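Mods, move this if it's the wrong board.
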Amino acid sequence: MRSVRARAALGATVVVALALIGAGLSVLLVLRANLTDQAGLQAEVVAREVAGQLALDVPYDRLEMRDEEDHPVQVTDEDGRVVAVSKDLRAISGTGTDRVTPIPAPGAGKSGGGSENDGTDDDGADDNDGHGIPARGEVDSDEPDFGNGTATVDDETADYRFASVKATTPAGVTLTVHAGAPLAAEQEAVGTVRGAMLIGLPLLLLVVAGVTWLVTRRALRPVEGIRREMAAITASEDLSRRVPEPGSRDEIARLARTTNETLTALEASVERQRRFVADASHELRSPIASLRTQLEVGAAHPELLDVPGAVADTVRLQALAADLLLLARLDAGERPGRTVLDLGALVREEVSQRTGDRIAVTVAVTDSGPFEVAGSRGQLARVIGNLLDNAERHARSAVTVSVRTAERGDVVVAVTDDGAGVPPQERERIFERFVRLDDARTRDDGGAGLGLAIARDVAARHGGRLTVGDAREGGARFELRLPGTG
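Not the wrong board. Structure tokens:
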């Protein structure tokens, strides 16, 4: 099932079905329990009525049993023998014995087992205790025993709820009265509810599935628009196009906005890559063409070969290739090393190697350090070298590099010159690749415009930053700030 709408509709339908089935079963169980309890209560009332008569020593054949068709009664003695049953009772189960034929007790008349005139003289006077007060037995007041069974009354068999109540006659005979109440009402009610659920549940699930399908289709309509536009962008390779953004503020609207932001970033990245390739090709073309020309002239006229010029073009080409390779590694996400090094010592080492500079570099260390940072020694040396090269190009008479510790343990390297400085509106642009200010330097002596871009990228990947401002001497002040290890 590949459709989100279908999966959502199916999931919602399954969840609702499980909930309804659980609720329906609970309703049926509660309904059945309540109706069964009501039937049991009715059976208990009938059983206690008969038990009360037995406690009053009413003869078995004179017991009054109400609604004998709806409430079958069976009376058994301690030995399980049937001593009395309700009228027209043909069969019974669930009471402990299925006999429905009473067994005559000794004396054949009274429930207590005596003769018909036992305890009563010829004129009917009761002399059980010598004071004319009838003797009484007792009815067990404990909770009766309940059980389900069947009974056949007038050739009609039905299910009943039986209650069993014990009674003791005045003669001390313990009898058990089993009285039943019909379960037809409970079965009919439960069957009606169950039938309604079996009919209504599928209909309700169809409604839930249909509504979920329609709502999901409406909710996912913007997603389909986004998908079609992305497919069109992929086919046309036109990154200037954007996906439609719905007016809502839900997750789909945020998805559309994020997609457009991603397309904007991708378009900018592709444009930077195109400019990079174009500028790199342009920068490489000049030294390669110059070197080829000199070599061709040298091949035809060896005496005219400009060896120093060829060497200079080769060095320039080598430096440009190295810069391009470093930029490619940075763009690929290469992580710098975590070697701990002294930035003050690295600055002194870089300055000591610049013996052929037009202007001597002055090193100013404001404190004794240590100036320890973590990173790549080669990349940080490239940053310092690029900053010094940039200062040499623009300085009139002085270049100064200083190292100090700042707040929070940062290490700051500042390179200043007394040149023309950088206009405020150009201070971010000079860190872009292949950017050279028109009045700053020429193509021949100004480099390819990659030094400052490389320096900022390396600084950022070391957790620091590179900024430019005004120097006290009137020129530019480039400040490299890196987190210290102390």
